[in-house]
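Fold Annotation — chain and its backbone
Next Lines — sequence and tokenised fold

***
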Amino acid sequence: MSSSVGEKKRKIGVDEKASDEVFEYTSNGQIVPKDVVSVQFHPSVVEIEEKAFQNCNMLQDVVFNVGLTKIGSWAFINCTALDSITIPSSTLEIGREVFSGCTGLGEVVLLSDGIKKIGMRTFRECSSLQSIAIPSSVDEIGQSAFNSCKELREVVLNEGLTSIVSCAFSGCLSLQSIVIPSTVTKIGSRAFSNCSSLTEVVISDGLMEVGDSAFLECRALQSITIPSTVTEIGSNAYSGCTNLQNVVLNVGIKIIKKQAFHGCISLQSITIPSSVLDIDDCAFSYCDSLSEVVLNDGLKKIGDSVFLHCTVLQSISIPYTVNEIEQYAFYGCINLQEVVLNNGINKIKEGAFGRCTSLTSITIPSTVIEIEQYVFNNCSRLREVVIHNDKVHISERAFINCPLLERFNFPGLSTRLNKLIQAGQRGIEIKVDAISAVEWRSGELVTPSVCREIENDGGWGVVRVEALVEVDKEKLNKVKGLIAYYELKEATTLFELALWKATIDQADNDDNIDRVAHRVEVMGPVKDTILQYLR
């Protein structure tokens, strides 16, 4: 066989069976026959050109020369018969999609300690590849580099790697374990998504961010420990990890993003460390086995639907640092029996505790100024609501479909009324001026023997007496009832007028609107409260 390119000729028979000859590649725009079976590289080759062996689907054997520094993008894309390659130690760069679609490639050996990056989609859909060891010189594994390598069972990542970018190992269905080196600072979005056999992930200190959907649908994953260096868990990071039972979040995390653990139906407990400021929307929604949640002081936001349909959750205590409970935060928690709302909460938004059918009582702290509509919608066992701020704005639909709700209890209002009752029970002290030595006590005249002080004025005795006056309890109760009646009647009237105005405002703008037809009567529980104080 001549080494001259000009003398090299491929001989194809009538049946187009490929020759057994070894093709020598010298680069410099050389045209490669599509039916090449075996290739070796001339010692002078330092770079393999882009698309050089693209779609050579009969190529089985490739021998790279020592001295090769770069393999151009798409160089061996869709070479489906290629079964093994060894990248020489001289190679510094592997371009994008170099071996993408090489479905027969079962063995890859990277000898180079100079490679800095595994390019985008370099080994994508190499469905026969079973193992890969990434040299310590590599600092980045590119986007989708090993995406859909369905038989990839073993991956060794060495110290020195700093970034695993998006979809790097996505769809590696046979991958069972992975150890993330301490030099890695970020796991990119969907990096290990749909790795359905992945049971063990070891994340070393040093990692700062778990990207969006990083471990999405890793259905075999059973436990995860997030180190203290991580500050952010991305959206859908562990969503759909249906066998995930144990999650340890260390102090350091600040944000748990949307749907981070959505649908983790085997997760039984979670403790949110004090460093977490924000639990974003649906972070733990549909965690059907989640029975224990510990929220520590420091948390500021509980997002929309965070614990939506956590059907076995029985109790929750909201820290005083939380200002607002967002809409539908605990909606559908049908076994939630105890809710502790601490001072600090200002607003409870729409549907926050809707369909919490095991909740029987709730105490609203004095800091709450607004309860939006449907907050306790369909809380079918709710009987008592204690509201410590009698000026709180309560939506007319806040307690809709609560058939057992008997009364609202306003302790502040009760205190003011009870003071009147207590005054009648213990009596009050007043000062009475009297001429001569007489004093009024319970409607009777008494003698000067009870005088406390006698003053002389021009020879005449002017007597000043200070006595305990016993107020008639029956009369005081009538006064109390009268005050309560007018105070509560005024409040009820204002409440009805507000509801009336709201219904008119919601109606179409019509000068001939039937205002009477839009009148709204005050809700039953409020009337019951009024009657309680008028008895």
